[in-house]
Amino acid sequence: MNNPQTKQPVFVNAFARLHMGFLDLNGSQGRRFGSLGLGLNAPDTLIEMTTDQHAFGDVEEPAYVNKSKQLILAHANIKCDVSIKVHREIPRHFGLGSGTQMALAIGAGLNQLFNLDLTPTEIAAMTGRGLRSGVGIGTFDRGGIVLDGGRGDGTNVPPIVVQQPFPEAWRILLIFDHSHVGVYGDKELNAFATLQDAELQETRKVNHQILMRALPAIQEGDLSVFGKSIALLQAYTGDYFAPVQGGRYASKQVAQVLNYLTDSGVSCVGQSSWGPTGFAIFENDAIGQDYLIKLKATFQDAGRGENLSWLMCAASTVGALVNTGNKPLMSA
Questions:
Q1: Average pLDDT, the chain
Q2: Among 230, 228, 240, which Cα is nearest to 202's?
Q3: Element (H, E) at 46
Q4: Which residue from 27, 83, 254, 319 lies 20 to 30 Å from 45 (Cα-Cα)?
Q5: Which of 147, 143, 144, 141 is nearest to 162 (CA)?
Q6: How many degrees, rounded to 5, is the angle at CA 146 between CA 195 and CA 319?
Q7: For position 193, what pLDDT does the model report?
């Protein structure tokens, strides 16, 4: 049994991530999945935790929060209970990694409370996260652009093989469809169990594009080359999952926006994970804001996107933030 290291509340701030696609949906070479992702500075999850059982009054923890907490407490053999309050949360089932970020945030807070010295990978394994993708674990740890190595025989959590900064000036526009949620839970598990393997030749082509074009393009600040590589990755991933999600993109409204942007010359667009959230990447904020004005006029003001909303953000430059004290952390 561990005694708390502090009686002060602990705040953990974790940030959303994009999942841009899987690199290997074939698996014949010994590893499967592998994925490219990007940490964002918004939206975010902010939780507060304490060993004071009366700190939050009658506010009950959501069941999924309590489940992750209990799994970690049991693994660490901690009998002392902990109360958690969710101040803000990444939208759930929108393809932005909300479940993984919440589980890791809970683990990071318990680390601080009880001096557990658990790594994000260990927390993920305890809570059943990172079964197919490690990018959310990587962005929680250090932010930036992340490539994981997929799962091999006996691999519990995909290892992070590349992690590097994303160009600071580039801006990411998130496109939300509030009438739709992505595939999750049993439907997601069934999809991975029933879909046939992708063609090996196409898999090799995508791998080459990401390793030899997309990653170098980030270092060189070449959004055009990066965007072309992401387009191939999106086509490979989206077409593979199309039988489950109803097309390359899960949301028809988001698809219309992404097609409009592509036709307008925007080089980097796509869907994050199962969606429905779409994204577009611009060379700087001014260009992004100009396109956002056009999108609002074309879709919302024209009555074509009543369920759509937008958020302009940047890549994260740090991982999750942990603070002990009385003041919560602010979103980046």
A1: 91
A2: 240
A3: strand 33-50
A4: 254
A5: 147
A6: 125
A7: 73
Residues 102-136 have pLDDT tens digits of 999 999 999 999 999 999 999 999 999 988 899 99
Cβ neighbourhood burial of 186 (10 Å; 0-12, 13-18, 19+): exposed
Q: How wide is the angle at C-alpha 33 spanned by C-alphas 27 and 39, nearest 5°?
A: 165
Return the structure tokens found at 207: 């791998």
- Where would I find the H helices in the chain? 63-75, 98-114, 120-127, 135-142, 185-194, 200-209, 215-220, 223-245, 252-263, 285-295
Query: So where are the chain's domains?
Result: 1-165+319-332, 167-314
CA–CA gap between residue 133 and residue 18 (Å, rounded): 12
Mean pLDDT for 292-296 is 96
3-state secondary structure at position 319: coil
Are the folds of 1-165+319-332 and 167-314 the same? Answer: no
User: The tokens of 51 are what?
Assistant: 């060993």
Tokens representing residue 31 in the block: 């590893």
For the domain made up of 1-165+319-332, the CATH class stated in words is alpha beta
Give pLDDT tens digits for 2-11: 677 667 899 9
pTM for the model? 0.92
Q: Assign domain 167-314 one CATH number from 3.40.190.10, 3.30.390.10, 3.30.70.890, 1.20.58.340.
A: 3.30.70.890
Residues 6+ apart with CB under 8 A from 28: 197, 200
